[in-house]
Amino acid sequence: MNKELWVKCKHGLITTSFDGEGTVFHLDTRKYYMTNETAAFLLELLKDKHEGLALSSIKNMLLEVYQINDEKRLDDGLVSFFHDLEQHGLGLLQFGNGGKGDISVRNSGVKTKRDYINPKIESELDTMLVGRQLVDLMTDISTASLAQGVAEIAE
C-alpha cells in the first residue's frame, strides 16, 4: 500500500483568482473564503482531481512555478495550508490511493518564477454582510481573468 500523503478537495468548490488573491465558495455549506495567490493556485490544482494529488506532486508543481529557496518554509506552508483545508471543511488528507489520478510534473514553460508566499485560506466571510458585493467581485474577477486569457491567446 502506498504510504504517501495525498490531498483532495471536497466536491462543490468554486474558485476564482485575480491579481494575487482568490475566493472559494463551497456550494454545500454556502460559505466564502478569501485566499492568497499561492492558496488559490493550489486549490485550482486540486479542485478537479477527484482522487486527490500526492504531496510530492504538489511540492514539485510549486517548485516549478514559484521561486523557493527554503524547503522547510515550503513544508511549513503546506502543513498550515492542509490544516486550513481541513479546518474549513474544504479538503482532506489521506495516505495513498495507489497512484490513481496523480499528475506528473512536466515543464510548464514558466520562464520567470513567481515569489513564493505561504498559502493561506482566510477565515470564512459573512455572506449576510457581503452577499451581493462578493458576487459582484467574483463576477469582476472572472470577467477580468477571461479578458486576460483572451489577451494572452491573441499575443
Write a short abstract of this structure.
This protein has 155 residues and is of the alpha+beta class. It is 43% helix and 25% strand.
Describe the structure.
With 155 residues, the chain is of the alpha+beta class. It has one domain (5-126). It has four helices and nine strands; from the N terminus they run ββββαβαβαβββα. The chain has helices spanning 37-47, 55-65, 71-87, 127-154; strands at residues 5-9, 13-18, 21-26, 31-36, 53-54, 66-67, 91-95, 114-115, 121-125. The strands form three sheets. A four-stranded antiparallel sheet has the order 2-3-4-9, sandwiched between helices. A three-stranded antiparallel sheet has the order 5-1-7. A hairpin with a 4-residue loop joins strand 3 (21-26) and strand 4 (31-36). The protein is globular and about 40 Å long. It starts with a strand and ends with a helix.
Please bin the fraction of helical residues. 40-55%
The SS-based structural class is alpha+beta
**Domain tally:** 1
Query: Quick one: biggest sheet?
Result: 4 strands, antiparallel
Q: Indicate the overall shape.
A: globular
Total helical segments: 4
